[in-house]
Design a protein that fits this description.
Blueprint (H helix, E strand, L loop, with lengths): L2 H8 L4 E7 L11 E7 L9 E3 L13 H9 L5 H7 L7 E4 L4 E4 L6 E5 L23 H12 L4 E3 L1 H4 L5 H9 L1 H7 L2 E5 L22 E4 L2 E5 L4 H6 L7 H8 L3 E6 L2 E8 L2 E6 L18 H8 L15 H8 L3 E2 L2 E2 L3 H4 L3 E2 L8 E2 L11 E2 L2 E2 L6 E2 L2 E4 L9 E2 L16 H13 L15 H10 L3 H8 L5 H4 L2 H7 L5 E14 L8 E4 L5 E6 L11 E14 L6 H4 L22 H4 L5 E12 L6 E10 H6 L2 E8 L1
């Protein structure tokens, strides 16, 4: 291929097909006219494909239903087998597309589900018999009815028609089983084009406006391929919406309608195989979805999305929460893993606007309007958490580890390291316990501790099981926690100075001891900042961990002559044994730290609000004035 033609082809946006006579130096054994295909470097990467000129793609104005059906039939797993893998949703209603009527789903029926952006349109009205006027429906729902019929299915599920929008009980029931609805669907039709449901499915009732155009250049022809499916997804309104996140998460077979053709996706565990009505680059991770069961990855993705009604923030994530943690969640947090879940923070690097979402407790990620980030993993918790009594009950619900839960193994080099960190928290008085430990914390001692605490449940029962919850949480605390979205915590508290950071690599504010020594950093959302000068703030000890201290030190502090030994004990400042000096001193830049929560109490009720999450060096926490107490958070 001439260099000029090759360069000309590369300048065309998207993919290009170049048609002409093959140069002998490229394919010496071929003399037939060929279609030489080269993707633009910024879309597909490297790699040429050779085809005949007759294979230049053609996209009709309307969907080629026979071709789409053949793509669906190419799947190795029949839809009937897929439906049997999941328990059918209880009380499911579907649309009979031949009768235009909403009915109770027949036993074993195969149905298609619709995933789309409804928008701000008014609620659809149904008659008492469940029938509706098809012509009064939004275009996307209308086209979905046609697509369902053309693909050989009799039943369609659409939220606006199959969930009683005027019945809060039915709404809650269906939202709680949303994962089952999409898991059990034979296919999910995804409307990627348009801003809302008035747009329709391209190529169904309205002709597609895009088509392949070929430009002749001498003996060559150049045609731009359709944008990739990844491009269509990432630039769609559908991809930005909160509700569609869980719909995609639980759909194993997708039929994606774009302005450039129809694509069929078949998910097998965490992989996806794509087939297209027309030629288009496909990718295994084209949807960019987290693995099922990955709470933090799912939460990080979900909180980047938008909701028409901010109050839907938990409802639109319910299916994901229930699929991972069942009933063990409280305002979006898995309370069996509360020590880590409570440590969520606003995402550091985001261009999205952030604000406080009212109507949710400050300790829940649902209170933050904007992307959130997962915490750095802890070695173990230092606090006892409890939910207020449910219903007419009087007993708090302790947040104990779930049965069978194991220590997270990837963060620490060995479980002995974890045991050494936990023991350091015990020896410095961060836990109320009568457990006797060897202060040397040598490897044999840590191995014995691991035998004693092989999992989080054993650790919790040994360390916190001695607490009597009726004693640590008074009746007054319990009554106070029962009002509104509140949670109880019993832990150690201490006060430090908080002020602006000169080098905010992690947190927005420095934490300093009362004599001004740097003790850590705290990340405070801009809407919680209350002062541009230093002030005394209260912290709760959440968990103990090991982290790299030098990352968080500001420039001024690093020039302090005592920098290299700033964690070392000094006489007269603490009564902790000097034999802990070696354990608590930095090792190659790493030191033991505490995850802490900055709180602010209401002067009248004494109920506290979460202000921020930070890290304080265990050394500095041990030197501070501390006390154990129960706190009610809202």
């Amino acid at each position: 291929m001439p260099i000029a033609a090759r360069q000309r082809a590369r300048r065309i946006s998207g993919y290009v097909h170049v048609v002409g006579i093959c140069a002998s130096r490229m394919l010496p054994n071929m003399s037939l006219p060929i279609c030489w295909t080269r993707p633009s470097d910024n879309i597909l990467g490297s790699g040429d494909r050779v085809t005949t000129p007759e294979t230049i793609p053609i996209l009709g104005q309307y969907v080629d239903w026979s071709k789409v059906r053949s793509l669906l039939n190419s799947s190795s797993t029949p839809t009937s087998e897929l439906s049997l893998e999941s328990e059918p949703p209880a009380g499911l209603k579907v649309i009979n597309v031949q009768q235009d009527r909403v009915i109770e789903a027949p036993v074993g029926c195969e149905y298609i589900a619709l995933s789309y952006v409804f928008g701000s349109l008014t609620t659809i009205a149904l008659t008492s018999s469940g029938s509706f006027n098809r012509h009064s429906l939004p275009a996307t729902i209308r086209d979905a009815l046609v697509a369902c019929y053309k693909l050989g299915f009799k039943y369609l599920w659409v939220d606006q028609l199959c969930i009683n929008q005027s019945d809060p009980v039915d709404q809650l029931h269906q939202i709680n089983q949303m994962s089952r609805i999409y898991e059990c669907a034979a296919y999910t039709v995804v409307a990627l084009a348009g801003e809302d449901s008035s747009h329709g499915l391209p190529g169904v009732s309205k002709a597609r406006s895009w088509s392949y155009k070929c430009i002749r250049i001498g003996n060559f022809g150049i045609t731009a391929l359709a944008p990739s499916l990844r491009f269509c997804i990432k630039n769609s309104k559908w991809y930005t919406r909160g509700w569609t996140f869980q719909e995609a998460m639980f759909s194993s077979r997708l039929i994606l309608f774009t302005s450039y053709g129809v694509h069929c996706g078949f998910r097998d565990n965490d992989d996806i195989r794509l087939l297209s009505e027309t030629e288009c680059h496909t990718s295994l991770d084209v949807l960019g979805l987290p693995k099922k069961g990955d709470y933090w990855h799912a939460l990080e993705q979900y909180t980047t999305r938008d909701l028409t009604f901010p109050s839907d923030i938990l409802r639109a994530f319910t299916a994901v929460l229930r699929s991972i943690h069942g009933e063990d969640t409280y305002y979006g947090l898995p309370f069996r893993e509360i020590d880590d879940a409570i440590l969520w923070t606003p995402a550091e690097f985001t261009s999205a606007p952030t604000s406080r979402r009212h109507g949710f407790p400050t300790w829940s990620w649902a209170s933050h309007c904007g992307p959130i980030s997962r915490p750095m993993w802890s070695a173990a918790g230092l606090a006892v958490w409890a939910l207020p009594p449910r219903g007419l009950g009087t007993e708090v619900i302790l947040c104990t580890p779930r049965p069978g839960q194991q220590w997270d193994g990837w963060w620490y080099a060995s479980q002995q390291d974890r045991m050494r960190i936990i023991a350091s928290g015990l020896l410095t008085g961060c836990l109320q316990s009568n457990i006797s430990l060897d202060l040397r914390l040598a490897t044999p001692v840590c191995e014995q501790l691991y035998s004693r605490w092989p999992n989080p449940t054993a650790y919790w029962e040994d360390v916190f099981g001695q607490y009597r919850h009726r004693e640590i949480f008074s009746p007054v605390d319990v009554r106070r926690a029962s009002r509104g979205a509140r949670i109880l915590v019993y832990s150690q508290t201490a006060k430090f100075l908080v002020g602006p950071s000169s080098r905010p690599l992690w947190g927005t504010n420095c934490i300093r001891s009362k004599n001004g020594e740097l003790s850590g950093y705290v990340d405070i959302p801009h809407y919680e900042l209350q002062s541009s000068t230093s002030y005394i703030a209260e912290f709760i000890a959440i968990s103990v961990m090991e982290d790299c201290s030098d990352v968080y030190l500001d420039d001024n502090y690093s020039r302090d002559p005592e920098y290299e030994d700033y964690l070392a004990f000094t006489d007269g400042k603490t009564d902790v044994s000097k034999r802990m000096e070696k354990i608590l001193s930095p090792r190659r830049g790493w030191s033991y730290m505490l995850h802490v929560m900055l709180i602010r109490r209401d002067e009248q009720s004494n109920v506290a609000r979460r202000v921020g999450i930070g890290l304080i060096f265990l050394r500095k926490w041990a030197e501070a004035e501390r006390r154990f107490e129960a706190i009610v958070l809202e």
